[in-house]
C-alpha cells in the first residue's frame, strides 16, 4: 500500500475515491429504505473511520488515513462546507419568514426554546461526566442547547418533496417553521462561538458589536449591490463567468470577515446566501453551477472526516450507552414534543401535529456541522461527539418510517383532494382514454400524434393525459425552481406544443416518484386508461429496450400498454401489422383497426408462413383477422382499408423488417419472442425488431388479468388514487 502512495496528493486522491464510492454505494441502500442521502453519506463516513474500517483493517487504515494526511482532508472539507452553507442560504426563501401566522410563530419558537432548555438541563448531568475541566460550564450549556435545537432545513425540504407533502397544510407549516429555526439557530450559534472564542467579557462585547456591524453592512450595503447583480444575471447574457467570479469573491470576503470577527466563516457564507436576490432566477442559476461539485465531491469529504472523528468504541460501557440513549430521548422529547404540542394548541389535529413534530425532529447534516464546530472549539469531548453523531443519525433515520405510520397515505389524500371540482367528463365507456408517460422531451410529440389519432377527432369522446414522473433528487435548485410542477411543465412543453398544433386537449400531471412503474400503474387505473403509452431510451448497461421500468409497467399495468419507438412520427396514413395470431398481436391489430376508423389509415397485415408448414396457415390467419374485424361496419372497413399479405420466410422478424422498409408510417407489433421482442427485466441481447426497424414502431402488450402476478404494482394506493381523481383538468 505504501508503494501506491508517493505524495500527499496521491493519498488525497485515493481517499476521495474511496469516500465518494462508499457514499454512493451506501446511498443505493438508503434509497431502497426511502432515506435521505445524508444518512448514506454519514454512515459511509463512519464505516470508513475507526469504528469499522480502522477496526477490521488497522494497518491499511493507518496508511490511507494517516494522521499527517487529515489536515489536508479537513481543509478541503471545510471549503466544501463554506460552499454548502452558501447554498443553504440560497435555498432559504425570505417569503417563508414574512407574514407568518400565529401557528408558525408559536411552533417555531417553542421548537427552539423547549429543546434549548432541555439541553441546558441535560448539561447538568453530562458536564461532570463528559466534559474537560478547562471548558466553561456556560459555553458547554449554551452549546448543548443549540445542538438540541437544530432542524435540518435542507434535508427536511427534500423529505417533504419526496413524500409529496410540500403542498399540503402540514408541509407548508413545517417548512416555514424549519426556515425560522434555521436562521434563529445559526444566530444563537454565532453568539455561542463568539463567547467560546473570546478571552473575557470585554472580548465578547466587542465580538457582538462587530457581528452586529457586519450584519448591518450585509443588509444595507451588500444586499442592494446583490440585487443589481441579480438583475444582470437574469438578463439575456445570463450568468456569466465574471458574475460567478464576483459572487465567489464576495463569498470569500464574507467568510473571512466572520472568521476575523470570531463567529466562524460558515456564518458568513450562510449570511451571503440568505441575502441573495431570490426572485430573478439568479440564485437558482448560481446554485445549479455550484451544487453538484459541492454536494457530490466536497460534502462527502466532510462526512468522512466526521466519521474519522467518530469512535463508537469509546462507548465501551453500559453507562456510555445509557448516556447516549438519554441524549436521544431528550433530543426527541424536546423537538418532537415541543413542536407537536404547540401545533396541537394552534388547532391542528393530533395526527397533523404529530407529523409536524416528527418532521421538525429531523437533524441530519446541520447537526453534524454544529457538532464539528463544538469539537474543533474544544467545547465537547470526542466521546460526547460520538454520542451526538449517533443522535443525529437516529433522529434523521426515524423520520420517514414514523411519518408513514403517523400520517398515512389516505390522510394525505384528503388534503391533496382539496381542490376545485373538474369539468364533468363523459362516462368512461363513451371515451377512449390514453395515458402518455413522458420521460424525455423528445418522445412527447410522437406520443401525442399517435394518441390523438387513436382517440379520434371528437373532443367529447377522447381523454388524453400526459404524465411526467420526476425522480427524487438531492439538488437544492430543484426545490428553488418550484419543484415538480415547473420541472414537469418543461419536460411536457414539446408534447403540449404539438397538441396545440393538432388542436387536441391534453391534461398534464407531474409529481415526484421514487417508484415510477408503481405510480404509472396507479395513474392508469385511476384515470381508467384504455392504453398506456410509454417511451423508450437506450439503456445504460443492458441492451434490453423492453426492460427496467418499461418491463415493470408492461407486467403490472391493468390495461393495454404500448411502447413507442419514435423515429419521426408526424402523420399516420400507412400502417403495418405483423400478425402471428397471439393475444398481443390481436391487441396491436385492434389499435390498427381503430386508427383506420378514426383517421382513415391504410392497414397492411403481414402474416409470415414457414415454407415447411402447411398451406392452410394463411386461411387460419384470415379467420383470426375476421374475428377482429367483425360486424357490418368493420366488414366494410376491412374491404376498403385492410390488406392481408402472406409471405413465406424462415424468420418472421426478418420478414417484418423487410416489409417495414416499404414506406410505412408506423409498425404495430405485439410483444413476443416470434418477433424478437421478449420481455426481460435485464438482458445483453438487443431486441432484433426494435433495432432494425427503419420506421416508428409501437410494441403492444395486451392486458390479460390472469397473467398479472400478485406482487405486481397494484394500482390501489389510496393517496395517489384519491389525489388524481380529484385533480382539476389542465391543458
TrEMBL record:
Keywords: Ion transport, Membrane, Transmembrane, Transmembrane helix, Transport. CDD domains: USP-like. GO terms for biological process: proton transmembrane transport. Residues 462-561, 572-701 form the UspA domain. InterPro entries: Cation/H_exchanger_TM, CPA2_transporter, Na+/solute_symporter_sf, Rossmann-like_a/b/a_fold, UspA. Pfam families: Na_H_Exchanger, Usp. Its main location: membrane. The chain crosses the membrane at residues 12-30, 37-57, 69-90, 102-125, 137-160, 172-195, 201-226, 293-314, 320-343, 364-381. GO terms for molecular function: antiporter activity. Residues 22-405 form the Cation/H+ exchanger transmembrane domain. This is Potassium transporter.
Amino acid at each position: 500500500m505504501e508503494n501506491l502512495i508517493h505524495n500527499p496528493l496521491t493519498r488525497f486522491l485515493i481517499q476521495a475515491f474511496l469516500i465518494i464510492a462508499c457514499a454512493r454505494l451506501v446511498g443505493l441502500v438508503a434509497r431502497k429504505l426511502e432515506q435521505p442521502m445524508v444518512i448514506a453519506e454519514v454512515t459511509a463516513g463512519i464505516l470508513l473511520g475507526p469504528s469499522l474500517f480502522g477496526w477490521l483493517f488497522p494497518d491499511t487504515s493507518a496508511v490511507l488515513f494517516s494522521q499527517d494526511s487529515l489536515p489536508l482532508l479537513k481543509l478541503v472539507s471545510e471549503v466544501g462546507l463554506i460552499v454548502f452553507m452558501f447554498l443553504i442560504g440560497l435555498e432559504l426563501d425570505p417569503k417563508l419568514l414574512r407574514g407568518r401566522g400565529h401557528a408558525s410563530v408559536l411552533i417555531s419558537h417553542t421548537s427552539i426554546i423547549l429543546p434549548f432548555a432541555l439541553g441546558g438541563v441535560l448539561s447538568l448531568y453530562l458536564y461532570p461526566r463528559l466534559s474537560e475541566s478547562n471548558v466553561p460550564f456556560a459555553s458547554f450549556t449554551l452549546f448543548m442547547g443549540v445542538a438540541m435545537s437544530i432542524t435540518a432545513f435542507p434535508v427536511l425540504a427534500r423529505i417533504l418533496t419526496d413524500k409529496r407533502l410540500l403542498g399540503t397544510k402540514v408541509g407548508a407549516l413545517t417548512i416555514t417553521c424549519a426556515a425560522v429555526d434555521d436562521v434563529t439557530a445559526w444566530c444563537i450559534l454565532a453568539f455561542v462561538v463568539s463567547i467560546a472564542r473570546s478571552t473575557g467579557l470585554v472580548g465578547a462585547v466587542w465580538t457582538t458589536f462587530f457581528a452586529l456591524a457586519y450584519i448591518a453592512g450585509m443588509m444595507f450595503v451588500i444586499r442592494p449591490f446583490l440585487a443589481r447583480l441579480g438583475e444582470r444575471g437574469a438578463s439575456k447574457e445570463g450568468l456569466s463567468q465574471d458574475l460567478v467570479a464576483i459572487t465567489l469573491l464576495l463569498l470569500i470576503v464574507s467568510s473571512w470577515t466572520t472568521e476575523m470577527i470570531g463567529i466562524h466563516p460558515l456564518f458568513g457564507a450562510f449570511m451571503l446566501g440568505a441575502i441573495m436576490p431570490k426572485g430573478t432566477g439568479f440564485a437558482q442559476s448560481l446554485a445549479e453551477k455550484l451544487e453538484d461539485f459541492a454536494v457530490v465531491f466536497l460534502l462527502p469529504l466532510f462526512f468522512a472526516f466526521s466519521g474519522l472523528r467518530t469512535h463508537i468504541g469509546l462507548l465501551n460501557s453500559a453507562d456510555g450507552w445509557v448516556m447516549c440513549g438519554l441524549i436521544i430521548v431528550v433530543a426527541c422529547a424536546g423537538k418532537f414534543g415541543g413542536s407537536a404540542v404547540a401545533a396541537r394548541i394552534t388547532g391542528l389535529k393530533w395526527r397533523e401535529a404529530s407529523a409536524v413534530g416528527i418532521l421538525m425532529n429531523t437533524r441530519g447534516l446541520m447537526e453534524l456541522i454544529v457538532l464539528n464546530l463544538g469539537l474543533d472549539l474544544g467545547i465537547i469531548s470526542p466521546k460526547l461527539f460520538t454520542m451526538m453523531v449517533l443522535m443525529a443519525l437516529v433522529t434523521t433515520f426515524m423520520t420517514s418510517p414514523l411519518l408513514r405510520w403517523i400520517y398515512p397515505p389516505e390522510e394525505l389524500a384528503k388534503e391533496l383532494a382539496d381542490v376545485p371540482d373538474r369539468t364533468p367528463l363523459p362516462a368512461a365507456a363513451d371515451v377512449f382514454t390514453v395515458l402518455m408517460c413522458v420521460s424525455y422531451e423528445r418522445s412527447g410529440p410522437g406520443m401525442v400524434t399517435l394518441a390523438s389519432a387513436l382517440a379520434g377527432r371528437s373532443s367529447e369522446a377522447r381523454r388524453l393525459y400526459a404524465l411526467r414522473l420526476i425522480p427524487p433528487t438531492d439538488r437544492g435548485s430543484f426545490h428553488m425552481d418550484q419543484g415538480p410542477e415547473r420541472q414537469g411543465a418543461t419536460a411536457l412543453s414539446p408534447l403540449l406544443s404539438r397538441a396545440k398544433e393538432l388542436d387536441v386537449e391534453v391534461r398534464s400531471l407531474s409529481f415526484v416518484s421514487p417508484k415510477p412503474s408503481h405510480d404509472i400503474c396507479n395513474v392508469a387505473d385511476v384515470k381508467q386508461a384504455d392504453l398506456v403509452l410509454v417511451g423508450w431510451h437506450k439503456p445504460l448497461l443492458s441492451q434490453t429496450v423492453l426492460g427496467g421500468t418499461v418491463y415493470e409497467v408492461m407486467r403490472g399495468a391493468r390495461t393495454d400498454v404500448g411502447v413507442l419507438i419514435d423515429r419521426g412520427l408526424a402523420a399516420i396514413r400507412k400502417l403495418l401489422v405483423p400478425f402471428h395470431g397471439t393475444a398481443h398481436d390481436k391487441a396491436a391489430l385492434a389499435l390498427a383497426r381503430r386508427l383506420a376508423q378514426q383517421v382513415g389509415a391504410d392497414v397492411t397485415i403481414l402474416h409470415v408462413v414457414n415454407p415447411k408448414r402447411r398451406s392452410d396457415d394463411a386461411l387460419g390467419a384470415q379467420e383470426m383477422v375476421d374475428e377482429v374485424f367483425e360486424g357490418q361496419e368493420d366488414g366494410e372497413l376491412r374491404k376498403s382499408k385492410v390488406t392481408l399479405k402472406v409471405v413465406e420466410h424462415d424468420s418472421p422478424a426478418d420478414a417484418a423488417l423487410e416489409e417495414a422498409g416499404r414506406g410505412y408510417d408506423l409498425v404495430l407489433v405485439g410483444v413476443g419472442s416470434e418477433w424478437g421482442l421478449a420481455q426481460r427485466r435485464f438482458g445483453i441481447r438487443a431486441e432484433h425488431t426494435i433495432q432494425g426497424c427503419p420506421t416508428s414502431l409501437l410494441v403492444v402488450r395486451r392486458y390479460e388479468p390472469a397473467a398479472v402476478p400478485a406482487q405486481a404494482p397494484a394500482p390501489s394506493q389510496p393517496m395517489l388514487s384519491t389525489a388524481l381523481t380529484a385533480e382539476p383538468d389542465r391543458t
